Amino acid sequence: MKAITLKVPDVGNAPFDYAVYLAAKLYEDAVMTSGQAAQVAGLSKRSFIELMGKYDVSPFSTRTQDVVDDMIHA
After folding, report:
1. Number of domains in the chain
2. How confident is the model at residue 66 (pLDDT cuts 50, 70, 90)?
3. What's the pTM value of the predicted model, to 2 decimals?
4. Do the domain assignments include residue 63?
């Protein structure tokens, strides 16, 4: 196992908050699927998706948003 050090904004007091924040950002950057990120956060996929807004992350991937934008502007 490899240890890493990250600088993240203050998102709460509990390790849970940081786990969800990290998972949300990894999802946002398309490093993980929502299911994988939910697993990192220790949540069900549904619970994870419901919490993403708290961390300023859209539940829609960038790829999905690009498709929607293309449809609107076509």
Report:
1. 1
2. low
3. 0.66
4. yes
Please provide residue 34's backbone torsions phi and psi, each rounded to the nearest 5 degrees. -65, -35
Q: How confident is the model at residue 43 (pLDDT cuts 50, 70, 90)?
A: very high
Let me know if residue 23 belongs to a domain.
Answer: yes
Average pLDDT over every residue of 2-22: 76
So what's the pLDDT on residue 64? 54
- Kindly list the distances between the CA atom of residue 41 and the CA atoms of 9, 14, 15, 55, 64, in Å, as whole numbers in the listed order: 17, 12, 10, 13, 22
Domain assignment of residue 25, given as a range: 15-72
Mean pLDDT for the stretch of residues 57-63: 71
CB-CB contact of 21 with 54 (8 Å): no
CA distance 48 to 41: 8
Residue 38, classified by CB atoms within 10 Å of its CB into exposed (0-12), middle (13-18) or buried (19+), is buried
- Indicate whether 21 belongs to any domain: yes
